[in-house]
Amino acid sequence: MRIRITVENKGGGDFKFNRILLRSDRRDEDGLIQILNRTANTADLQIGPLEDYRILTFLDSDYPGWRAFVNGESVPIFRANEQFKAVVLPPGTHRVYFSFYHDLTWKAFFVSMVTLALALCGLLICWRMRLPGASGNEKECFSVALTYAASSNTACFREDMS
Q1: Do 67 and 101 contact (CB within 8 A), yes or no?
Q2: 88-123 burial, b if ≥16 CB within 10 A, otherwise e?
Q3: In what order do the strands lie in the sheet with 54-61?
């Protein structure tokens, strides 16, 4: 068995392990995981009973905006295998809930709705201020005649209101 552990010290001081305990659990614990509900932006799981601490690795992309809750309390999400989400679970039975909420998604939605509202207002204003004759009412119709006099190189504009 090969294990690779990467520890990144972002602080300025020294980093020292006091105790390291690695366990390999060769038993299949998939029977302890029950998926209660799964959508594109959420996952609701029932885990347990666990005899000891476990790392639950959720094979879904660790994209910024994901949040994890264990028994209703917010917990940190760790990156597993450089691309998946993982949370630490203590012994016992737990309800684990993952949800995706990204501010950029809601900001883009808001900008889209404002743009749509402005476009609809613009269309309404244009409809209310439409040119005479655009309504199909014959009393509002008018015609425009443009003639060009070749001898004087001038154009004459004449509006004929019927």
Answers
A1: yes
A2: ebeeeebebbbebeeeeeeeeeeeeeeeeeeeeeee
A3: 54-61, 84-89, 78-80
Rounded distance between C-alpha atoms, residue 69 and residue 94, angstroms? 10
- Do the beta carbons of residue 160 and residue 143 sit within 8 Å? yes
pLDDT tens for the chain, 162 residues long, are 466 667 777 777 777 777 776 666 666 667 788 888 988 888 899 988 888 888 888 887 878 888 999 998 999 988 888 888 889 898 999 999 999 887 787 889 999 999 999 999 988 888 777 655 555 555 555 555 566 666 555 555 555 554
Q: Write down the domain spans for the chain.
A: 33-100
Structure tokens at 33: 């995981």
- Token pair for 81: 């295998």
Choose among 110, 9, 107: nearest CA to 65.
107
- The phi, psi pair for 125, rounded to 5°, reads -65, -45
* Contact between 97 and 44 (Cβ < 8 Å): yes
Please state, in angstroms and rounded to a whole number, the distance separating the CA atoms of residues 155 and 50.
92
